[in-house]
Specification:
heterotrimer, A alpha/beta (167), B alpha+beta (76), C mainly alpha (404), A: 167 residues, alpha/beta, Rossmann fold, seven-stranded mixed beta sheet, 6 helices, globular, C: mainly alpha, 19 helices, 2 strands
């Protein structure tokens, strides 16, 4: 099972990656390129799963080398955690929409939730989930808020995925 | 309409047109520079350096040459 | 834009208007400092303060670690090493492991044994500064300062054929040239990578080198150190300017988001710091030991003496250094910190110490950086880069020798 962390640059993807994975993190190059990515593991119930910190991307219609790699990596992932900057929902949702157009389960982490609240930005999470038909979890990667919820959502999605795979 | 590069510091404007190829337009759009967006110029760096604007509360740095291809209308 | 892009943005607009309400939108304090540090009038003074502050913190942490942690550890270790020295008795094995005893005692700076200087240089002289440097750099990275610095000096960087983001590579290179050289990959064009990598190898001394230069030149006060660093900075600017003029092509403009200032998440920061330190230990320590080992072999076989005779016109004539410096220049191909360490016992005058430091920094990268650059640039470009390195090192070294 391979989980991909995807999102725009500077949305706290690395901090979230750090929260989810342990110390054994490997930095490697995507084969044949010079773009680096981080790979780690996390425990989900009974199984260990691979977590990949995919290079930051604004869009899946590539405009940079990092975005090209992100698209390549998407082909080999099982579940995507789309990390979104809650203080800039509009710009971030572009990638979310593109991810949802593909046939891969997506959980959206509405990160930097505290700052959004502080800035007076209110987001109706339930409504958002209904409109986009995918789970959204408010998180604050820096303090760890919402990580538990994210992980339990993830294990639910992964067990469903594993069953459909077997069946 | 004036190019973004000519916009005065502190002024707010609406993006009216993004010139250049589709790839360029797409790159601009991915950081929020697209038609209809309201932007505010924060500063421009000396010696024809980049221009910094605020769009959707985020700060974006744009090279001077690129900023010349973005046409805006100053908001009164 | 294609219809598809347009449709998505329309869809997003519809969604956002349904789910998001913005009650009040006032500028926060962090936002205000954020903007102040990119506006040129306030940004440049802030940049200078940040750099000076960074420098002070690195010194404070580095010196503190050396004085209160590493030197005490080696004080405990010394009797053990002396015991081993007695057990071994004089001979080749003793020379390799312990080195030469200075007045019957181990001198970690000068003995040149694998278990003395070979351990002391990387752990007690270099590691503390590398640690301090990466700690501060990782903080500046994670709090969001570096993109602002990149935007501020973008036009300056264009004068040397690069763009603002390249400053991040150079800063990384100050820690260790290997990750610095690797990070030049993010630059868009081959031309930029070539310029950045060449400048890095020539004019950006790594922390290991800086720590040792402080030891060598700092003895004569801050002035000598200032001259070394200023010379390297000028070389960086002038050489970059020339390369930009000579090499065909343009440097693409900067286009990026400047993230808001954020308080770093310490877990992620410490993890990154640990990965960088681990990388340094893996890359540097084996080469330091190999360097010390080779010095011993070269001396034992009398090769140094031989090379000294060949290199004398350049080293003594052009650069005004004593014959003993030849060995250091040879070892400098492997590790700069060991090489500078070898200059310590020579009793150089201040001008000699300055010339030696500058030439050692410029003439060739250490072997690890060389291997990395060759992989990144390819053999042909690396050969070009090497010619530039040696020529400019001799030119600048010769000039300094004349002036000082």
């Amino acid at each position: 099972m391979r989980i991909l962390l995807m999102g725009n640059p500077n949305v706290g993807k690395s901090a979230l990656f750090s929260r989810l994975t342990g110390v054994n993190v490997i930095v490697s190059n995507y084969p044949g390129t010079t773009v680096e990515f981080k790979k780690g593991t996390m425990r989900l119930g009974e199984q260990w799963v691979e977590v990949i910190d995919v290079p930051g991307a604004y869009t899946l219609e590539p405009t940079t080398k990092a975005e090209e790699i992100a698209i390549e990596m998407l082909k080999n992932g099982d579940v995507v955690i789309n990390v979104v900057d809650a203080t800039n929902l509009e710009r971030n949702l572009y990638l979310t929409l593109q991810l949802l157009e593909r046939k891969i389960p997506v959980i959206v982490a509405l990160n930097i939730w505290d700052e959004a609240k502080h800035k007076g930005i209110l987001i109706d999470v339930e409504r958002l989930e209904k409109l986009l038909n995918t789970p959204f979890v408010p998180t604050v990667a820096i303090t760890g808020e919402g990580i538990k919820e994210l992980v339990s959502m993830l294990s639910r999605l992964c067990s469903v995925k594993a069953q459909t795979k077997r069946g | 309409m004036i190019p973004l590069s000519e916009l005065d510091t502190g002024k707010v404007a609406i993006v009216k047109q993004v010139e250049g190829g589709r790839g360029f337009q797409r790159r601009m759009a991915s950081l929020g520079i697209r038609v209809g967006k309201i932007i505010r110029k924060i500063t421009s760096e000396p010696l024809r350096g980049p221009i910094v604007v605020e769009v959707d509360g985020a700060r974006v740095a744009i090279g001077r040459g690129m900023a010349m291809k973005v046409l805006v209308e100053v908001k009164k | 834009m294609s219809v598809n892009d347009e449709q998505r943005w329309v869809e997003i607009g519809r969604i956002v208007s349904q789910v998001q309400t913005v009650t009040h939108r006032h500028h926060t304090f962090l936002e205000k400092i954020g903007d102040a540090s990119i506006k040129p009038l306030t940004g440049f003074p802030i940049a200078i303060v940040v750099l000076l502050f960074t420098f002070q913190i690195i010194r404070f942490i580095g010196e503190g670690l050396i004085g209160y942690v590493f030197e005490p550890i080696f004080d405990i270790y010394t009797p053990l090493a002396m015991k081993l020295s007695e057990l071994l008795g004089p001979g080749f094995v003793h020379d390799v492991l312990i080195g030469t005893l200075i007045e019957g005692e181990i001198d970690y700076g000068q003995s040149m044994g694998l278990l003395t200087t070979g351990l002391f240089v990387p752990f007690a002289m270099v590691l503390p500064y590398v640690f301090a440097f990466y700690l501060v750099l990782s903080f500046l990275e994670d709090c969001g300062y570096l993109p602002r610095l990149a935007v501020l000096i973008d036009s300056l960087m264009h004068k040397i054929g690069l763009h603002g983001l390249a400053i991040v590579s150079f800063l990384l290179g100050l820690g260790c040239n290997v990750p610095g050289a690797l990070s030049t990959r993010v630059l868009e064009t081959r031309r930029q990578v070539f310029i950045a990598a060449t400048l890095m190898a020539i004019a950006v001394p790594c922390m290991a080198q800086i720590a040792m230069i402080v030891g060598l030149v700092g003895r004569y006060g801050a002035e000598g150190l200032g001259i070394v660093l200023f010379t390297l900075f000028m070389v960086w600017m002038i050489l970059g300017y020339l390369l930009n003029k000579i090499l065909k092509g343009e440097s693409p403009e900067i286009f990026m988001e400047i993230p808001p200032y954020r308080i770093p998440y310490w877990g992620a920061l410490l993890k990154k710091l640990w990965m960088r330190i681990r990388f340094f230990l893996r890359e540097a320590v084996p080469y330091v030991l190999l360097g010390v080992f080779i010095v011993n072999i070269l001396y034992a076989l009398g090769i140094i003496e031989h090379m000294g005779k060949i290199a004398a016109p350049i080293v003594v004539g052009l650069l005004g250094l004593p014959m003993g410096a030849v060995a250091a220049l040879v070892v400098g191909f492997l590790r700069k910190d060991v090489a500078i360490g070898m200059l310590l016992p020579l009793g150089l005058t201040m001008p000699q110490a300055i010339v030696a430091s500058v030439v050692l920094a410029m003439y060739f990268p250490c072997v690890a950086t060389f291997a990395t650059l060759t992989k990144e640039l390819g053999i042909v470009d690396m050969a070009k880069s090497t010619v530039i390195m040696i020529a400019s090192a001799l030119l600048v070294g010769g000039l300094l020798n004349l002036i000082l």
